[in-house]
Write a structure and sequence with these properties.
about 150 residues; alpha/beta; 6-stranded mixed β-sheet; 4 helices; 6 strands
Amino acid sequence: MKLWLLRHGEAEPRARTDAERNLTAAGQLEVEHAASHLQGQPLQAILVSPYQRAQQTAEIVRQTLGFTGAVETVPWLTPESDPKDAMLYLDRRIEQHLLLVTHQPFVGVLGGWLVSGHRDAPLSMATASLAELEGDHLATGSMRLAGLRHPE
């Protein structure tokens, strides 16, 4: 199984609500660069936060890759989501190659938990950072960090 974790690109500092913040022009470029690292990967589905900046990030990835598979908005990919909720949901998925588009601190905590088995060892995830995790199955402490790319 492969799981890619992508933090949204740089977003404007303020909007009416946090969920409504848009990507900046620099953030859009960051995401295009991150998406290029997914070229040729057997991606089966993209799961994305309902927040605007994550939605925009997922759309840039979809367009960059020419991805025609499922792009699904899920409520458990927001900044303050509980990784346990994510694990319950992901355990029910049949895909073996998933991309999650989400936010800090959630993305760092989830990635660290999957790799180390501890919530207090989060992955360092800047805007548009892309983590690639591999494992026989999706379980805490059972995945291997195969790559971690940060924007240049």
